[in-house]
Design a protein that fits this description.
With 439 residues, the protein is an alpha+beta fold. Helix content is 33%, strand content 24%. It is elongated and about 85 Å long.
């Protein structure tokens, strides 16, 4: 029994059964040819990655890049369509209608606005451009998996659904994958997200988050003439921030809070009539996350009340008031190490000689299905990356073929191949997906 790890003391034990299934698939002639094809096509995949990167996909405006991915999926032999929110979806049909369906996703959007220059530069073996890795590399890796399947005519038992999702980043609030799992009506039994370059990273958990905009408003006034007569919106925010800074949160499950942005006031000699901030609350456990929300939000109302009390303000029209607006919700999720996706990925890493060095939790498209109890994880896409989400983001195509190889071998173990072992992925029989709503 092989042991690979890490997230502090958490260890992934890959079972002998999982190893046996993956070894049987790995030794199949058509699969061997497909794995070799991923290696041989590495230069082509990198050029395609550059092409994709140079098509803009700013937040909430991913249509142009989505159209490009749709046409590429069609060119590689799949029927691809765009859904109402902009996801691009293509299905690789299996031979058995009762076999499981596994989805592979990579996200279309970047964190950069339309004004950002996205021309790729080459320097000393690296590619530089905003978004060159996150998640352009995921899209290129997903397309390589499609080429490997179609060109080698690999017969699967279950279906593989390929989806280029919208809205994975920031204010996108996972809108693409929420649509896929909450309201599309498509039956899905498991998910592999392709995100982050490192093929040695594997996610067992999903870090959930709740984000809010907090606004304080009051009458405002002159800093000297109205001193003591009017409460200050900025001071109310400072009082609330001081209360939040003293809040105790658990170490396990890991839980965090932060005031991410702050702004307010009119001028240096004014009593502020408006101030606002954005807060980010996170945990790997949903109950703990909701409990955190219940603890944090009242602190901002308390900050406003303390500011009013400080100046003896009793008239409602003169008080500083607090308004809370939800900005986003990424549900949390955890799964046991026996989860089929973790077992398949761990065994695939072993077969390909990839060391699992980062066994952890994070926030990706996997959050939604994992929170529903659907086996899900995120796989590295190959190569090396740095300075993601910055204007100096870079990608180095060092053994980048390992990403699509890992995704291919993992998904084949999950859905099964004809005349091969039974699929490792079970049939999802949890609560109806239609029960869930956008949040």
């Amino acid at each position: 029994m092989e042991k690979i790890m890490q997230d502090r003391d958490r260890i992934l034990n890959v079972s002998e059964h999982s190893q046996k299934v993956v070894r049987a698939i790995y030794g199949t002639e058509s699969v061997q040819k497909a794995l070799e094809m991923a290696k041989l096509q590495e230069p082509y995949a990198i050029e395609e990655q550059i092409e994709i990167c140079e098509v803009p996909a700013p937040p909430m405006k991913e249509l142009q890049r989505g159209e490009l991915i749709k046409e590429k999926m069609r060119a590689y032999g799949l029927e691809a369509e765009m859904d109402p929110v902009g996801n691009v979806i293509a299905r690789y049909k299996g031979s058995c209608s009762e076999a499981p369906v596994c989805v592979i996703t990579a996200h279309l959007d970047t964190v950069f606005g339309e004004e950002v220059e996205i021309k790729v530069r080459r320097k000393e073996g690296r590619l530089y451009a905003p978004g060159i890795s996150d998640d352009t590399r995921g899209l290129a890796s997903m397309l390589q998996v499609i080429r490997c399947l179609v060109s080698n005519n690999i017969k699967t038992q279950g279906d593989i659904l390929f989806v280029a999702t919208v809205g994975e980043e920031a204010e996108g609030d996972l809108r693409g994958v929420k649509r896929l799992f909450y309201t599309s009506g498509i039956h899905i039994d498991g998910m592999l997200a392709l995100d982050s370059a490192d093929p040695g990273r594997l996610l067992w958990g999903s870090t959930g988050s709740k984000r809010y905009k907090i606004e304080f408003t009051g009458p405002g006034g002159h800093s000297y003439l109205n001193f003591g007569q009017c409460p200050s919106a900025t001071q109310a925010l400072c009082r609330a921030g001081s209360l939040l800074a003293e809040l105790e949160v658990p170490d396990s499950p890991r839980t965090t809070f932060t005031i991410g942005t702050m702004k307010g006031g009119t001028s240096v000699n004014s009593i502020a009539e408006h101030a606002e901030c954005e807060i980010d609350l996170r945990s790997t456990d949903n109950e703990t996350l909701y409990s955190l929300v219940d603890s944090v939000l009242p602190l901002f109302s308390e900050g406003a009340e303390l500011e009013n009390q400080r100046w003896g303000i009793t008239q409602e029209e003169l008080k500083v008031k607090c308004k809370v607006t939800p900005l986003g919700h990424r549900p949390a999720g955890m799964q046991d190490d026996s989860s089929s996706v973790l077992q398949a990925a761990g065994a695939a890493m072993e077969a390909l000689g990839i060391e699992l060095t980062n066994y952890t939790s994070a926030s990706t498209d996997q959050n939604v299905p994992m929170s529903m109890g659907i086996p899900s994880t995120t796989l590295g896409t190959g190569g090396r990356e740095g300075l993601s989400h910055s204007l100096n983001e870079w990608y180095e195509p060092y053994r980048s073929f390992e990403g699509p190889q890992l995704a291919l071998l993992t998904v084949l173990a999950l859905v099964g191949i004809e005349n091969g072992p039974a699929p490792m992925l079970g049939i999802y029989s949890g609560q109806s997906q239609h029960h869930y709503k956008f949040q």
